[in-house]
Design goal:
The structure is a single chain. The protein is of the alpha+beta class and 213 residues long. 57% of the residues lie in helices and 9% in strands. It contains ten helices and four strands, in the order βαβαββαααααααα. It has a four-stranded mixed beta sheet, with helices on one face. Strand 3 and strand 4 form a beta hairpin. Helix 1 crosses helix 7, helix 4 runs antiparallel to helix 6 and helix 4 packs parallel to helix 7. The chain is globular and about 45 Å long. Bound molecules: glutathione.
């Protein structure tokens, strides 16, 4: 089967994480050609005002701009065969992606705190409140939907968004947030992380990224 895809340019920061990453991963999974425009942090102040909301990711599709991560995840997910056609299953995927976005919004301020004491307090509050709250909800959703995937008992872009959030939480990069918080709070999500890590296209994508960097 041959597909005609639109011309896509995805602009995001120059690291393999954050809001841009599930979109990149879904594009790679679907073998959808795209320009992977990575903006170095040092260039951001110069280009920020040229983006519609002064934020990334931004996608140019046939020369016209679309913003908002979950919108872009759905758009790419539909092209990549990673988004359910069934309305209820689509709501399941959407709910998981919205939860990840909500939790990210709560976590972001602590990523930029300079004062170590302020950062410690913020991180401890996150580890005691919002992080377990959202992890438990995501874990319960996963269990209710069959335990393997977030929507329709098959891989979707929602699995990529949760996988990348869990990867961040487990990375040890977040001081004062125990790296085993996922395992302790929602073991099903930790297993889901392993499942998605082993998807052949995901393995191939990160092998390619490792070779490129
Ligand atoms: N609602 C937007 C949020 C986008 C957003 O906050 N992007 C961050 C990076 S992940 C950003 O551009 N930060 C740089 C800045 O605000 O200057 C979305 O879902 O895409």
């Amino acid at each position: 089967m041959t597909h005609t895809f639109p011309k896509i340019k995805l602009s995001y920061f120059d690291f393999d994480g954050g809001r841009g990453e599930p979109i990149r991963l879904a594009l790679a999974y679907g073998n959808i050609p795209f320009e992977d425009h990575r903006i170095p942090g040092s260039d951001w102040p110069k280009v920020k005002d040229q983006t519609p909301l002064h934020q990334l990711p931004v996608m140019e599709v046939n020369g016209k701009i679309i913003t908002q991560t979950n919108t872009l995840c759905r758009f790419v997910g539909k092209m990549a065969g990673l988004y359910p056609a069934d309305p209820l299953e689509a709501a399941h995927a959407d709910e998981a992606m919205a939860d990840v976005e909500d939790l990210l919004i709560k976590m972001v301020p602590s990523l930029f705190m300079q004062d170590p004491e302020e950062k410690r307090r913020a991180r401890e509050a996150l580890a005691a409140g919002p992080i377990p709250l959202y992890l438990r909800r995501l874990g319960a959703m996963l269990a209710e939907r069959g335990g393997q995937y977030f929507a329709g008992n098959r891989l979707s872009v929602a699995d990529f968004r949760v996988f990348l959030m869990v990867r961040h939480l487990q990375s040890g990069a977040l001081d004062h947030i125990p790296a085993d918080i996922v395992k302790q709070t929602a073991p099903g999500l930790a297993k889901h992380f392993e499942r998605i890590s082993a998807v052949p296209q995901v393995v191939a994508y990160y092998k390619k990224r490792a070779a490129a960097t």
